Amino acid sequence: MPMFSWTALASCLLIVAAFPVLTATLAMLTLDRYLGFHFFTNTAGGSPMMFFNLIWAWGHPEVYILVLPAFGIYSEVVSTFSGKPLFGYRSMVAATLFICIVSFCVWLHHFFTMGAGGDVNAVFGIASSVIAVGTGVKIYNWLFTMYGGRVRFATPMLWAMGFMVTFVTGGLTGVLLAVPPADFLLHNSMFLVAHFHHVIVSGVVFAVLAGIDYWWPKAFGYRLDPRWGKAAFWFGLVGFYVTFMPMYVVGILGMTRRLQHYDVAAWYPWLLAAGIGVIILAVGGACQVIQLVVSYRRREALRDTTGDPWNGRTLEWATSSPPPPFNFAVLPQVKETEHYWEVKQRAFEQARLSEEPDYKPIEMPRNSPTGFVCAFFATLIGFALIWHIWWLMIVGLLGAYATFVVFAWRDVPEYIIPADEVAKLDRARRAARQQILTTGEVEWQ
């Protein structure tokens, strides 16, 4: 199973385990706000600190819900552009599961200063340091995957390499913040802001940008312009460091976050540097937008006719770009960790594809806007509850319920793609692949 699948599965497990805590917390907060309960009211027997404990008991696993799928993206990108299988596959899976478990044991490091006592702080400080082992294993596995490989510095790989350098910086500062005495000095300071952005922006945003560049040709049938992509990376990486590294300094100098204004002269040059970094970041963002526009205009020149522009290792690259509605004409029988890579290498050795399969009709589900419409009405409900607009809340509830009922009682059959159409689409894909095998006219990006 590809590493991205493992990380997505781990993220789903975290969602199932963590979000009931948020649901219960919001239920208690709603009862406090609208019905006069006092779960979190200090003067009426409740505890505001219980709210912080519950929110962060959900909130810290939620950080890994964000970052674990991003780790899967990096695993796919690093392996593909290093031309090697992912180093230490089993240890990567074990590290992912380790992070899943320990992420539930670290939430109190967000408020070491609440007065829980030295013993409690020590337990959570040790757990917060230990969880770095899981991410450290992943960093070493990615580095050893690159070691000895033929690394291609395409845009997705640049984002992955920028992530590794940046995430290590953020991780080391996180270990520092996991030490309660140090956290007492740096709590609620700009040092914490810099740490958070180092791990979340590099861990999630860089992964999103790498993933967009990596899977764009598979989704839309043409690659993104590499020149503008690399410009976006370099401006983004340099701008990121110029923006956030000075924040570590002003945090150590005593600057807390969320200040409306300041009058400490020692902070000024560092904040000026951070402001310059924001401008550089904005240039990087502009390059990213320009890349999308230029790529669309040059889409014919950037067209992917092979379905496999990166010499990929996972099964999605076995389909055409973009893939047909059914993805695979015949369900692949996966026997190896990198099944597609093994099949592709055998095909190159024999200079021919396997025998044409027996095509059959494929049943496909119909699309439905139900989830989007229900989410719209749920947004109305939340807005109405915040501002006590009861009529709007009722409209939202009725709209969400009616949408769900209409969906549940719909009498619309699924549709069938005939075997002839399946065969036509798959034969076109096979013909393009066979030409590559015969002529060898392919240049991996």
Describe the structure.
There is one protein chain. With about 450 residues, the protein is an all-alpha fold. The protein folds into 2 domains: about 5-335, Cytochrome C Oxidase, Chain A, CATH 1.20.210; about 370-410. It is about 65% helix and about 0% strand. The chain is built from 13 helices and 2 strands, in the order H-H-H-H-H-H-H-H-H-H-E-H-H-E-H. It has helices spanning about 5-35, 50-80, 90-100, 120-145, 155-175, 180-185, 190-220, 225-250, 270-295, 340-350, 370-385, 390-410, 420-440, and strands at about 360-365, 415. The two termini are about 25 Å apart.
Short summary:
By secondary structure, this protein is mainly alpha-helical. The chain has two domains: 3-337, Cytochrome C Oxidase, Chain A; 370-411. It is 67% helix and 1% strand.
**What do the pLDDT scores average to?**
91
Tell the overall outline. Answer: globular
Number of helices: 13
By CATH, the superfamily of the largest domain comes out as Cytochrome c oxidase-like, subunit I domain
CATH architecture of the largest domain: Up-down Bundle
Number of strands: 2
Largest sheet: 2 strands, antiparallel
Q: In order across it, which strands form the biggest sheet?
A: 1-2
Please tell me how large the radius of gyration is: 26 Å
* Unreliable residue stretches: none
H/E element sequence:
HHHHHHHHHHEHHEH
Task: Map the helices and strands.
Layout: H1 3-35, H2 48-82, H3 89-102, H4 118-146, H5 155-177, H6 180-186, H7 190-220, H8 226-252, H9 268-297, H10 339-350, E1 362-364, H11 370-387, H12 390-408, E2 415-417, H13 419-439
Antiparallel strand pairs: 1-2
